[in-house]
Write a structure and sequence with these properties.
There is one protein chain. The model has no long low-confidence stretch (mean pLDDT 93). The protein contains 18 helices and twelve strands. The chain is globular. It has 407 residues and is α/β, with parallel strands linked by helices. It is 49% helix and 14% strand. α4 packs across α5. It has a six-stranded parallel sheet, sandwiched between helices.
């Protein structure tokens, strides 16, 4: 008898870690696979030719009069055109989530919470419970997002469904206990952080990541000249990469600061890579005002840009980790006015900068100081040496089958 796996995933790093696993599971005729791609995950899955559902697939199941009422009101304010997400999908996503919170807190308190915290306050457990009742999986695989992925874990746990959470980050910013039977993590650093937050040590397995398995092969196949040509840059161009975070007020200040820095490096270009969840049109409009030919916007896969970059600058994006694993130095530029929630710099694997003067100093140091380069390389090897061993996919699949056998 076939075992059924239900996968729930958001976009960005969440869906990236899922896709290699999905491809392998699709080959197994003894497994029935159902996938829910949330938000921008749908586009990534579609681009890979992977059949999947969206939240709209379940709209007749999860939406009632109140959910439609809440959803239409919120979608007017929250919907963003140009992200590949329809107005109806935004309506269903926000409507079902708000309906669940209203049932828990009451309408006045729920909307007050939303005004304070935005969509981060959503944990739509009722909605995900209804979807799980329809799917009836033997195993739920999801990520570590605090919204619908967390709600899916919580609902599945209450229904006695086995749960595997794939944690694509380093465990700094998830301040809740994962309601999962097993948590697959990418590094020992992640494991230590999750245990420190109260997650049971016996539930956490260091697997590495299928996403990072590919780095070894990609570095062999990438061609510098072809990538620079694709970026419309000269064949001898050097570049700095600025990878942004979604909806951060400091984004434009970061671009201005990096554009100013590039003036000190006449052979360099600044390549701005927006987060997949951001609206590229905002960046196009902003860069047109800067009107600097050495500041360019890029839409290509970020690892191709990292491959030709001398330096990566971001706040706390996964791109920073990818850069370090590819041997490209990282600076965490934090202009948010609050502590960085993923302080990699504390481990000596990169630097932090909080203003232009510090940024200028740190850039010079990571590019030109031999001792600094050697120290950072040693620390990266110490904390992340297992990640790019090439075994992440194998380890994750082994864990999946181990859990299925226990059902």
């Amino acid at each position: 008898m076939k075992k059924k796996i239900f996968i729930v995933t958001y976009g960005g790093g969440h869906v990236s870690i899922m896709i290699p696993i999905i491809r392998e599971l699709m080959k197994d005729r003894n497994i029935e696979l159902s996938i829910l791609g949330l938000s921008i995950a749908s586009e990534a899955l579609r681009n890979e030719g992977i059949a999947h559902n969206t939240i709209l697939t379940y709209k007749d199941l999860i939406m009632d009069e109140n959910a439609w009422r809440f959803g239409k009101a919120l979608a007017k304010k929250m919907h963003v055109e140009g992200k590949g997400i329809s107005l109806e999908e935004t309506t269903v996503y926000f409507g079902s989530s708000m309906r669940d919170m209203v049932e828990e807190k009451g309408e006045e308190e729920a909307f007050r919470t939303f005004r304070m915290d935005g969509k981060a306050c959503f944990i739509p457990t009722r909605t995900m419970g209804s979807i799980l009742d329809k799917e009836k999986p033997d195993l739920l695989i999801t990520g570590n997002s605090p919204r619908m992925e967390r709600a899916a874990m919580t609902a599945a746990h209450m229904k006695g469904i086995k749960v595997l959470s794939l944690n694509d980050l380093l465990g700094f910013d998830r301040k809740y206990i994962f309601p999962a039977d097993k948590i697959a993590v990418i590094s020992e650093m992640t494991r230590e952080n999750l245990i420190g937050q109260g997650n049971p040590p016996e539930n956490i397995v260091v697997t590495g990541s299928p996403v990072f398995d590919l780095i070894i092969d990609e570095k062999r196949t990438f061609n510098r000249e072809e990538i620079l040509k694709e970026l419309a840059l000269p064949p001898d161009a050097r570049l700095f990469l600025l990878a942004t975070q979604p909806q951060k007020e400091s984004t434009w200040e970061m671009i201005d600061m990096m554009a100013a820095l590039v003036k000190n490096y006449p052979e360099h270009y600044l390549v701005v890579k927006p987060h997949p969840g951001d609206d590229n049109r905002l960046y196009m409009d902003y860069l047109s005002k800067i009107n600097d030919p050495r500041v360019v916007l890029a839409g290509m896969p970020v690892r191709k840009i990292i491959f030709v970059a001398d330096l990566t600058v971001t706040i706390y994006s996964t791109v920073g980790l990818e850069s370090m694993l590819m041997g490209v130095p990282l600076i965490q530029l934090n202009l948010m006015g609050i502590p960085n929630p993923i302080p990699l710099y504390r481990y000596g694997v990169c630097f932090e900068a909080k203003g232009y003067d510090e940024l200028e100093t740190r850039v010079n140091e990571v590019l030109n100081n031999k001792q600094t380069k050697e120290s950072i390389a040693r620390n990266i090897n110490h904390y992340f040496k297992g990640i790019i061993s090439g075994g992440g996919l194998h380890n994750c699949l082994h864990l999946v089958y181990e859990m299925l056998e226990s059902v």
